[in-house]
Specification:
With about 130 residues, the protein is mainly α. Helices cover about 70% and strands about 0% of the residues. The chain is globular, with a radius of gyration of 15 Å. GO terms for molecular function: mRNA binding.
Length: about 130
């Protein structure tokens, strides 16, 4: 459904799943990615919050999908918050994920924020993962 552009139908199935059984982390990630790709960041963020309220730990793929969507929308502030949470959870961002946010921050002249995130990431790892 998601691959065929049936966003509304996929979301209806997702809502039914929530009522009947607990979706797994991969299902939440697919829904977040789908809404990011449809440029509906409000819905992606709602699902993100709901996922965390259900005690699911987002994966690197979940974080990356959300950072990508926020960067494409130009929302560096929210993308930074998500990336910082990712790092705090001990999850290394890929080079592509970090690079997207890096480009946006440089475009906005926010080298200070970029330096902060890079230093925080260096406490976790030597360098981002290769994609």
């Amino acid at each position: 459904m998601i691959g065929q552009g049936q966003t509304d139908r996929a979301f209806r199935v997702f809502r039914r799943m929530i009522k009947l059984c607990e979706p797994d982390a991969d299902t939440y990630t697919m829904m977040i990615k789908m809404f990011c790709e449809k440029n509906d960041l409000e819905m992606a963020l709602q699902i993100w919050k709901f996922m965390k309220s259900k005690q699911f730990v987002p994966s690197m793929h979940t974080f990356s999908a959300l950072v990508k969507g926020l960067c494409e929308k130009g929302d560096a502030a929210k993308a930074c918050v998500v990336l910082e949470e990712m790092i705090e959870k001990g999850i290394r961002p890929s080079r592509i994920t970090f690079g997207r946010l890096r480009q946006l921050l440089l475009k906005e002249g926010r080298e200070d924020v970029l330096k902060f995130l890079h230093e925080k990431m260096n406490l976790l790892v030597k360098e981002p993962l290769h994609d």
